[in-house]
Amino acid sequence: MKIKSLAGILAGLGVVIGSAIALPASAQTKNSNTYYCAQLNGSWNTFVNTPRGRISLINWANEFSDKWTPSARCSAVSQRFQKFLDQGNLKFIRTGNINQLPVLCVANARGGSCPEENVLITLKPGTDPEEVLVKLVDFRRSVSGQTLTLSADDPGFYADGEFYVDMEKFLDTVPVNN
């Protein structure tokens, strides 16, 4: 009888220890990228530090308004990228329209929606958001000399008529700056 009780206790301890070991493993898989704003050659840029190296993501060349200077937009958008990454939501970037303005926003899933709270970048009226998003992907390809080919392995794809970028694939394939 005591042997059965001891076996039950050991089995219970095994489950508790197994759970404790499994939790740190999931914490280790958290994305270690870091988004930030900094100047490079006198221009404000949104950068992302990845385990492979630093990537210059966006060069902020134009003012959006008196309030939204390149410095202010760089800082705000870089913080938004980091916030969505920290929340585990930075899976896909897609185009959209919020308050009658073209935007780039975060979609939590392939083919996901573009809610107002997921806006990354608001573009000037009349700007084609798809063209901006394609340039983001295509610009990095032109630096590397790669040809733009939309395939299942490509970070850029269309779903329900909207252009999306898979951020993980994009950051895994884009050349690093250092």
Describe it.
The chain is α+β, with helices and mostly antiparallel strands. The protein contains 4 helices and 8 strands, in the order αβββαβββαββα. Strands 6-5-4-8-7 form a 5-stranded antiparallel sheet. A 3-stranded antiparallel sheet has the order 1-2-3, with helices on one face.
Précis, in short:
This protein is α+β, with helices and mostly antiparallel strands. It has helices spanning 2-28, 70-86, 129-144, 167-173, and strands spanning 34-40, 43-50, 53-60, 92-98, 101-107, 119-122, 156-159, 162-166. Strands 6-5-4-8-7 form a five-stranded antiparallel beta sheet.
Can you give keywords for this protein?
178 residues; alpha+beta; 5-stranded antiparallel β-sheet; 3-stranded antiparallel β-sheet; 4 helices; 8 strands; 38% helix; globular
Strand segment count? 8
Report strand order across the widest sheet.
6-5-4-8-7
* pLDDT < 50 stretches: 9-29, 145-149
Quaternary structure state of the chains depicted = single chain
Please estimate the helix content.
25-40%
Number of helices: 4
Biggest sheet overview = 5 strands, antiparallel
Distance between the termini: 67 Å
Q: Kindly estimate the percentage of residues that lie in beta strands according to DSSP.
A: 25-35%
Q: How much is the average pLDDT?
A: 79
- Rg to the nearest angstrom? 21 Å
Q: Helix and strand succession?
A: HEEEHEEEHEEH
Helices and strands, with pairings:
Elements: H1 2-28, E1 34-40, E2 43-50, E3 53-60, H2 70-86, E4 92-98, E5 101-107, E6 119-122, H3 129-144, E7 156-159, E8 162-166, H4 167-173
Antiparallel strand pairs: 1-2, 2-3, 4-5, 4-8, 5-6, 7-8
